[in-house]
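On clarity, I found the account of how folds are encoded harder to follow than it need be. Since the whole study asks how a given chain folds, the encoding of that fold should be made plain. The format is easy to grasp once an entry is in front of the reader. For illustration, here is how one protein appears when written out as sequence plus structure tokens.
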Amino acid sequence: MTMTDTERVALVRMARQVLSRGSLGDFCQLMSVAGYQQPAQVLALIGLLERIERREVTRAIVEMPPRSSKSTHVSRLFPAWWLGRHASDNVIIASYGEELATGHGREVRNLIESPDYPFETTMRADSRAAGRWQTEQGGGLIAAGVGTGLTGFGGHLMILDDPVKGREEAESVLTRDHTWAWYQEVFLTRLQKNGVVVVLGTRWHEDDPIGRILNSKGADSWERLRIPYIAGVADQIGRQPGEVLDVFGEVPSVERGEISSYGFSALYQQSPTPASGGVFRKEWMTRRYCTCGRPQVCGNMELPTKTARWNVFQSMDIGGKQGVGHDPSALATWGTDGISKFVLDYWSSQVEYSDVKSHVVTQWRKWRPRMMYVEDATWAQPLISDLRRESGVRVHGVPTRGNKWTRADAVSPEFEGGRVVLPEDATWLPDWMHDHVAFPAATHDEAVDTTSLMLSQMKDQPGRTRMVRLNDKGAVDGIASVEKMRLRMKEFLRG
């Protein structure tokens, strides 16, 4: 008897469903959209999850780069398969934010309600909220964000997916301690007898939750699947050293300045290292421009002010009062030809407000920058207001984003890529370099603050530039008369 096409399709579908009930890999193939793939890291992950379901592994850590399909499998497909095989079990999925965890819960619910779902597990009609629902068989799922309560709900399958939101949270000791306390005192206390725990994520810091687990007394009880983007020796999926991972997205480049080497090591290699003293490195500060006037003799590059279109900018960090324990104020002058960034001048001193104001106007007159950037903080508002109202200095207050370390790390690729050029000789240069290389352990960080502010703003500048020329004293030459501006500045300084 010959089967019709309809009968053949139905038979194939039935066979796939039967296979899916016993194989997570087949289940993922059945329930995923067209184009679904299972590269080597996915196959390794599926193998680990199947061992977890059999209780051969009860504690597991998964470390993989972004866009490697770890959450899709661990936090969506696996819970749906688990509840098909253990319909009366409870699943808890937690993440850094409740919205993300709820999204995972919604996807699991949708998979169970799909007509292709190969199990008999069904949803209760009166308990279907995306972040908290139950099955007719007595099981269910709850989604939670780090820091929220889980009272009254136990879990047989406990998943902690990406407990750290990003770099700023990872660099905060207070946030790391808060997350760890929640993990120990709330999350783990909901584990049912014979339950299993899976912690997965992209690494952000050596002291993140995964790092603390690996450094704990019970680390030996955890199975660890660590798959870096670039393979090393003894790779867990059998790659040769140097072979890259087949991820589902673009990977930022350290060479092109799209990500810092510290960030790449943590996020893509799953190998975060201590950041102290490592944000800016001395070997990244070797490019020099000529200050002696004879580049053919000294061998350093000539400033491109006479032959290239050129922008000059200034950035300022306003310190506190005079005396021990207060940071100095600092003003940095930078130039750029659109590719390289040249540090033209730097000043730092612990002086009173009137002296800061006087120096700002003097340096503005000397360099005539296109714009001066100042962190838009409460203590900077008086100076910003006075400069705008009385002196004619073009000053722009920039809102603060993140902490000092994250801001510095965001611009470090400019140094690492060799795009920052320093003078061959300047009285301020040794201290400036020391403050950068020693950051964040340096006594003062005002130099780094001006650098972070300046380079972050240079990234956002439009292509329009203006020509300036420097005379023998380093001042702007060839600029049209600005007598009106100078008169306003004199009046401002006298005030």
About this structure: Residues 238 and 423 are 49 Å apart (CA to CA). The first strand starts at residue 59 and ends at 63. The chain has 16 helices and 17 strands. Residues 5-22 form the longest helix (18 residues).
